[in-house]
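Figure 3 (text version): structure tokens given as input.
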């Protein structure tokens, strides 16, 4: 996350709730700075693999919030999969290795990618899966590399799996936001170009702008 701003706010909140703060970051930086209860180092860019393994444990041990998934999510399992989707094209099948790649996203599989011990992944999954509410928040770093949007989506999926979206003390899995931060910005002026592209295509627009 860097800067430690959100961790400061969480630190104030946990004084009243005795919540544990676990920070997952390749570096021990000022996000933690002694505020955390535990720091788990991870290989940079492998957060999605970690989330997949957490999901595997939660599914295997029935720690997912099935009523939330049934009511608010599309594509977690066969029940909410659109009719046009391929068979076993849902999230649960992907995690359990029943999808196209045939790879079960076990803690042992993720441990080789993330460098986090498999038993710690299992423990973390149980900690998150049994805590209600659990405030799941990602910093700015995970999405700032190739295919980073998939990492951001995976972390958001973790909040959905545990039903921590839309409840007091929970979060969407995204970076925290605010609607009233008073500071001065540079003027944006008026852009004469009215065309637009998907946010996820901006790298293509740079690399292949003239093709």
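Below: residues designed for each position.
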């Amino acid at each position: 996350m860097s800067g430690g701003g959100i961790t400061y706010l969480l630190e104030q909140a946990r004084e009243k709730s005795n919540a544990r703060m676990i920070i997952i970051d390749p570096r021990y930086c000022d996000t933690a700075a002694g505020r955390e209860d535990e720091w788990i180092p991870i290989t940079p860019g492998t957060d999605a693999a970690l989330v997949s393994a957490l999901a595997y444990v939660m599914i295997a041990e029935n720690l997912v919030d099935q009523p939330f998934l049934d009511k608010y999510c599309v594509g977690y399992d066969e029940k909410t999969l659109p009719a046009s989707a391929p068979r076993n094209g849902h999230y649960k099948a992907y995690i359990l290795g029943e999808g196209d790649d045939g790879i079960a996203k076990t803690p042992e599989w993720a441990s080789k990618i993330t460098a986090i011990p498999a038993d710690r992944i299992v423990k973390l999954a149980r900690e998150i899966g049994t805590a209600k509410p659990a405030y799941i928040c990602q910093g700015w770093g995970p999405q700032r590399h190739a295919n980073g949007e998939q990492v951001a989506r995976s972390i958001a999926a973790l909040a959905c799996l545990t039903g921590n979206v839309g409840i007091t003390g929970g979060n969407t899995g995204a970076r925290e936001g605010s609607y009233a931060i008073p500071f001065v910005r540079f003027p944006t002026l008026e852009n004469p170009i009215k065309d637009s592209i998907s946010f996820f295509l901006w790298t293509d627009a740079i690399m292949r702008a003239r093709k």
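The mean pLDDT is 86.
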